[in-house]
Amino acid sequence: MNQTAVVTGAGSGVGQAVALALVKLGWRVAIIGRRAESLNETVRRAGADKDKLWSVPCDIGDSAAVAKMATEVLARFGTVEALINAAGTNAPKRALEVLSLEDYHRMMDTNLNGAYYCTQAFLPGMRSQRSGTIVHIVSDAGKQASPKAGPAYVMSKFGLAGLTQAINAEERGNGVRACAIFPGDIDTPLLDQRPSPPPAEARAKMLRSEDVAECVLLALRLPPRALIEELIIRPR
Questions:
Q1: Are 92 and 140 in contact (CB under 8 A)?
Q2: Which residues are catalytic?
Q3: Which of 1, 41, 184, 222 is the least crowded, having the fewest Cβ atoms under 10 Å away?
Q4: pLDDT beyond 70 at 125
Q5: What is the largest CA-CA distance in the chain?
Q6: CA 209 to CA 198: how far, in whole Å?
Q7: Residue 74 and residue 148: Cα distance in Å, rounded?
Q8: 3-state DSSP call for residue 205?
C-alpha cells in the first residue's frame, strides 16, 4: 500500500520542498494551499512524479473549508499516514505599535488555527489505524521572541509548539506522534514580508527549504516506537 500524506502550505517554501521530497520516496501527497496556481507550480516541479501529487486548494484558516478538504482527501486516499502543517505567514507591519487586528487574526488563523483544524480533521483516522505522524513547521520564534518576528507570529508559533506537546501527551497511546521543527532563518518567499527584506548575501547564508524537508523525513522515518518531539535546526 502506498503511504499517503497531507502537506499544507505546499505551494512554496518548506511545504513545497516537503511534498517534492515525499513523492520522490513514493508517497502519495495531497498538497494544500490557498492559491491553485502555486499548487500547480509544485506539481510542475515534481516532473515524472507529478501523478503522485493531488492539489486541493483550501484556506486552512476556515474550519468548514478544512472539513470539506479532509473529506475529499480521505475519500481519495482512504487513510493518511502523515500530516505536515507547513503553512505560515507574517505581515510587514508586524510590531506591536503598528500590527492591525486584521493581520493579527490572519496570522493566528494561518499559523495556528489552521494547523489545529487540520489536526482535528485527520486525527480520528490516525486513531482508528493506530498510527500516524503529525509534523509542525514552527520557527525559532516559537522558542524565543524577537523584534524581527512580531508578536502575532511569536504567539502563533508558541501555540504550535504547545499543540505538538498536547498531541503527544494525549495520543501517543493511540499510536499517533507529533514533531515540532524549529528552523532558524530560511530563504523562502516569507522573507519578502519583512519590513526590510534581507539582501541576497544574507539569504545565501540561510537554511534552504530542502534542509527543513530532510528534518521532516527524519521524523517520519523513525520506528513507530520512537518520536522526536522537538527538533531545532539553524544555519551553520
A1: no
A2: 153
A3: 1
A4: yes
A5: 53
A6: 17
A7: 39
A8: coil
- Tell me the three cell numbers of residue 96: 506591536
Q: The C-alpha cell of 126 is what?
A: 490516525
Cα(28)–Cα(19) distance, rounded to whole angstroms? 9
C-alpha of 187 from chain center: 16
| Residue 125 · residue 158 · CB < 8 Å | no
Q: Identity (one letter) of the amino acid at 66?
A: V
Are the C-beta atoms of 212 and 137 separated by less than 8 Å? yes
Pick the CATH number of 4-233 from 3.40.50.20, 3.40.50.720, 3.10.180.10, 3.40.50.300: 3.40.50.720
pLDDT reported for residue 226: 97
In the chain, how many H helices and how many E strands?
A: 8, 7
Per-residue pLDDT of 48-92, as tens digits, reads 999 999 999 999 999 999 999 999 999 999 999 999 999 999 999
Contact 34, 10 (CB under 8 A): no
C-alpha angle with apex 106: 13 to 168, nearest 5 degrees? 70
Nearest to 231 by CA among 222, 156, 223: 222
**44 and 120 Cβ atoms separated by less than 8 Å:** no
1 pLDDT exceeds 60?
no
**Closest by alpha carbon to 119, among 159, 147, 76?**
159
The label of the residue with cell 501527497 reads: 29
Chain centroid to Cα 61, Å, comes to 13
SS3 177: strand
